[in-house]
């Protein structure tokens, strides 16, 4: 999967849409772990998500995760159902 890397500050500039396959349950578990990594070890997580302009990817610290969204720095929320890939 080819995704364009963007700055995390640019996420609000894109219209985020649901991914073709909804893996919310999987991403919820992974992002809960990523939250711990970010808070305890300042570790970055790479998140790829779907937009109307195609897949976009960011490298960021995960601040929090709910049952529907992941929150990154600056209060930006990305819907879990739009996420295509997560890796640490």
List the helices and strands and how they pair.
Blueprint: E1 4-5, H1 24-41, E2 45-51, E3 54-60, E4 62-65, E5 69-72, E6 76-79, E7 83-87
Parallel strand pairs: 1-3
Antiparallel strand pairs: 2-3, 2-7, 4-5, 5-6
How would you characterize this protein structure?
The protein is of the alpha+beta class. It has one domain: SH3 type barrels (Roll). The chain is 20% helix and 38% strand. It is built from one helix and seven strands, in the order βαββββββ. The protein has one helix at residues 24-41; strands at residues 4-5, 45-51, 54-60, 62-65, 69-72, 76-79, 83-87. Strands 1-3-2-7 form a four-stranded mixed β-sheet, with helices on one face. A hairpin with a 3-residue loop joins β4 and β5. The chain starts with a strand and ends with a strand.
Largest sheet: 4 strands, mixed
How much of the sequence lies in strands comes to 35-45%
Mean pLDDT over the residues: 94
**Helix run count:** 1
In the CATH scheme, the class would be: Mainly Beta
- State the shape: globular
Roughly how many Å is the radius of gyration?
12 Å
Count of separate structural domains: 1
Distance between the termini: 17 Å
Order of helices and strands: EHEEEEEE
Low-confidence regions: none
- As a percent range, the share of helical residues equals 10-25%
Structural class comes to: alpha+beta
**Neighbour order of strands in the largest sheet:** 1-3-2-7
CATH topology name, in short, is: SH3 type barrels
Number of E-state strands: 7
- Second rung of CATH, namely the architecture: Roll
């Amino acid at each position: 999967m080819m995704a364009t890397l963007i700055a995390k500050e640019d996420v609000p500039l894109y219209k985020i849409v649901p991914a073709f396959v909804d893996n919310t349950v999987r991403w919820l578990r992974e992002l809960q772990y990523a939250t711990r990594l970010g808070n305890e070890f300042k570790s970055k997580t790479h998140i790829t998500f779907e937009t109307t302009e195609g897949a976009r990817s960011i490298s960021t610290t995960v601040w929090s995760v709910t049952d529907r969204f992941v929150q990154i720095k600056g209060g930006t929320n990305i819907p879990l159902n739009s996420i295509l890939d997560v890796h640490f």
